[in-house]
Every structure is written in structure tokens, then in C-alpha cells.
Amino acid sequence: MKLTQNNKKKAVTKVVMENELQDAFMKFHKKFVIGLRKEADNLHFTISQLEILRFVIENKNPTMKSIASHLDVTAPSATSLIETLYEKKLVNRKSDPKDRRGILISATPKTIKLFSMFKDIKVGIIREMLVPLTEEEKKQLTVILNKIN
Questions:
Q1: Could you give the 3-state DSSP secondary structure of residue 63?
Q2: What pTM was estimated for this model as a whole?
């Protein structure tokens, strides 16, 4: 099947547009992650540690193994990250009554407070990134993102 000149132009335009969209998403993501890392550094945490806290809060007493799996890291790597959080009194550890080898991780009240503060920081980063947009553009972006998700 032969492509007409017009169809070729449409195909090239579509590819260019998709590449520009991917580039824009990646730049947005990079800017967001850089902002998160900066704030995490200010709080003396790594992004991985904050992700562990989120996971522990949302999954009520997950096992060390499930945390490692969630982060896609080895058990010793997860243990190292969790040990730091334990020393900061942000998580508790206890034996899993169903598995003698298992360790359950739970959040402390300090964790809930810290995570709430970090959630507010993330909202602030996003708000700052959206400053250049008009109210109408923000509405359009909301519609688009909801459609994607």
C-alpha cells in the first residue's frame, strides 16, 4: 500500500507530536523529582526512605519482604533503609506471628506527622510548577490527566 504525500506528512507530524509530548512529560517528571529530592535532603531522608514510610502507612504492618519487593531491592538493602528509619524512631519492628523468620514494620505517630508534612511539600512543589498556567489551562490539564489515569 502506497502512502500519499498527505498521509506521510500526517504520520511524521504525529511522530513529532508524540516525541514532543514524551519530552514534555519527562521534563515535568524530572523537575518534580528534583524538587522532591531537594526537600527530602532538607529533611535528611532519601526518596526511598520516604517511599518506605508511605508504603508502611498505606499497608498497615507490611513485612520486610513486601517492602523489599515494593522497592524492587534485595532484602538486605531494604533492611539497611529500614534500620535508619528505626533509629530515627519512625518505624517499629516486630516478629511476624505467622512466620518466625518474618519481620513486620509499623508506623509510629512521628511517621504519620512527618509523612503528612512531606505530602504538603509535594503539593507545594506541584503548585509551584503550575504557576505559569492560567486557570483555564489548569482545568484543561486536569481533564487530560484524569483521562490518562
A1: strand
A2: 0.69
Distance CA 130, CA 107 (A): 32
Was domain 8-128 assigned CATH 1.25.60.10? no
> Does the structure show a pLDDT above 90 at 103?
no
Query: Is the four-CA dihedral 7, 10, 14, 16 of positive or negative sign?
Result: positive
The predicted pLDDT at position 66 comes to: 92
The residue with greater pLDDT, 96 or 50, is 50
The residue ranges of every structural domain in the chain are: 8-128
Strand partners, 104: 63, 94
Tell the residue number behind the cell numbers 511522530, with chain if given: 15
Alpha-carbon Rg for the chain in angstroms: 22
Q: Which three cell numbers stand for residue 123?
A: 503539593
